[in-house]
């Protein structure tokens, strides 16, 4: 079991952004009111593990603007170490809009305004090697590798250094086809896949990376590449996980869906936190699944990330049959 005290247990690196989420569903051209939230896959993950009781740090850049100050204030309030978040005076904080429930009910899509953003200017020079070397687990997603040449190089460097220092590397493949083409994602992410200990993916990403969709085949292939734990998120079908010794499976939890964005980060952060607490593969998968369900019930990626106590209450209510939808 990895410890949860002392120095930072978990470090993540990526682009934190402002999410503008409509109060109403429907096409963005007809939406009038938006809510502001802090989001971004790796930042969500840092907040997720922090709520679960682990010391987390986030590496990235925000703009020297009001939105940058807003994002920093969120991380600080959540107890995430921001000492390696650079405030870039030359570029704005990235922003994205969410379109909810249209044209497909309960689904969301995103519209990015992040080209040339502060976060995308992340570079290998931003990394303080000693900082990365001191963590027990380094988490990154495919998004960071898609942001820019310098962000990609920073990603490779961080993963190398974390591994060299004996930290576990956790990768969520998170291929965003609005940021790059499938072939390029495959070329850039395959080497990272070879270096990761814990890999989160889904059938769409695994098809791009491995030409495989079947969860059991994907788990076996990624384990053969050197990972110790592989998790395949299956959306409405739940999730599957595997190590060399065991397999685990969960069904999706039916809850009222407000916005599905951020569920994957809730899932990944909760899974990792539970593995770090020494929980079994099956228990970690069930907890992750529950955290994902909690996050889809509200707008925003961070707000419903559970503490251990709240997660337990949610799971207990389910066991007692108090949460039943459809
Ligand atoms: O996982 C949720 C993220 O996708 C969202 O917050 C925005 O980081 C983001 C991205 O680049 O899509």
Descriptive report:
The protein is α/β, with parallel strands linked by helices and about 325 residues long. It contains eleven helices and 13 strands. The protein has helices at about 40-50, 65-75, 130-135, 140-145, 150-165, 180-195, 205-210, 215-225, 265-275, 280-295, 310-320, and strands at about 10-15, 15-20, 35-40, 55-65, 85-90, 95-100, 110-115, 135-140, 170, 200, 230-235, 240, 245-250. The strands form two sheets. The protein has a nine-stranded mixed sheet with strand order 5-4-1-8-9-10-11-12-13, with helices on both faces. Strands 3-2-6-7 form a four-stranded mixed sheet. Strand 9 (about 170), helix 6 (about 180-195) and strand 10 (about 200) form a beta-alpha-beta unit. Helix 1 (about 40-50) packs across helix 9 (about 265-275), helix 9 (about 265-275) packs antiparallel against helix 10 and helix 10 (about 280-295) packs across helix 11 (about 310-320). It starts with 9 loop residues before the first strand and ends in a 7-residue tail after the last helix. Residues about 1-5 have low confidence and may be disordered. The structure holds 2-keto-3-deoxygluconate.
Notable characteristics:
326 residues; alpha/beta; nine-stranded mixed sheet; four-stranded mixed sheet; 11 helices; globular; disordered N terminus; binds 2-keto-3-deoxygluconate
What sequence of helices (H) and strands (E) makes up the elements?
Answer: EEEHEHEEEHEHHEHEHHEEEHHH
Kindly state the percentage of residues in helix: 25-40%
Oligomer: single chain
Heteromolecules bound? 2-keto-3-deoxygluconate
Strand order of the largest sheet: 5-4-1-8-9-10-11-12-13
User: What number is the mean pLDDT?
Assistant: 95
Question: Which ranges are low-confidence, i.e. pLDDT below 50, for 5 or more consecutive residues?
Answer: 1-6
H/I helix tally: 11
**What is the general shape?**
globular
% residues in beta strands? 15-25%
**How far is the N terminus from the C terminus?**
38 Å
The main β sheet shows up as: 9 strands, mixed
Q: Rg, please?
A: 18 Å
Helix/strand structural class: alpha/beta
Number of DSSP-assigned strands: 13
């Amino acid at each position: 079991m990895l410890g949860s005290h002392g120095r930072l247990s978990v470090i993540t690196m990526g682009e934190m952004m402002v999410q503008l989420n409509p109060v109403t569903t429907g096409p963005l051209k007809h939406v009038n009111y938006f809510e502001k939230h802090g989001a971004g896959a790796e930042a969500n993950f840092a907040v997720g593990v922090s709520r679960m009781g682990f010391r987390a740090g986030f590496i990235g850049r925000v703009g020297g603007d009001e939105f940058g100050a807003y994002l920093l204030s969120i991380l600080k309030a959540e107890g995430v170490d921001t000492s390696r978040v650079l405030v870039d005076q030359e570029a704005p904080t990235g922003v994205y809009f969410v379109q909810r429930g249209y044209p497909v009910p309960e689904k969301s899509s995103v519209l990015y305004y992040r080209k040339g953003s502060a976060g995308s200017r992340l570079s290998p020079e931003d990394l303080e090697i000693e900082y990365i070397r001191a963590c027990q687990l380094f988490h990154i997603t495919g998004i960071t590798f898609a942001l820019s040449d310098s962000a990609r190089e920073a990603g490779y460097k961080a993963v190398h250094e974390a591994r060299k220092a004996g930290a576990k590397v956790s990768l969520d493949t998170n291929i965003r086809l609005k940021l790059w083409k499938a072939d390029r994602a495959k070329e850039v992410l395959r080497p990272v896949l070879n270096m990761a200990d814990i890999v989160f993916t889904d059938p769409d990403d695994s098809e791009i990376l491995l030409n495989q969709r079947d969860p059991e085949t994907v788990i076996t292939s990624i384990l053969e590449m050197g990972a110790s734990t592989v998790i395949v998120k299956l959306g409405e079908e739940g999730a599957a996980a595997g190590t060399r010794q065991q397999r685990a499976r969960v069904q999706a939890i039916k809850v009222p869906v407000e916005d599905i964005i951020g569920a994957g980060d809730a899932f990944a952060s909760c899974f990792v936190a539970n593995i770090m607490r020494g929980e079994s593969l099956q228990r970690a998968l069930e907890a992750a699944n529950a955290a994902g369900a909690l996050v889809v019930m509200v707008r925003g990626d961070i707000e419903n990330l559970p503490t251990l106590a709240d997660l337990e209450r949610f799971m207990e209510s389910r066991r007692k049959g108090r949460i039943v939808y459809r």
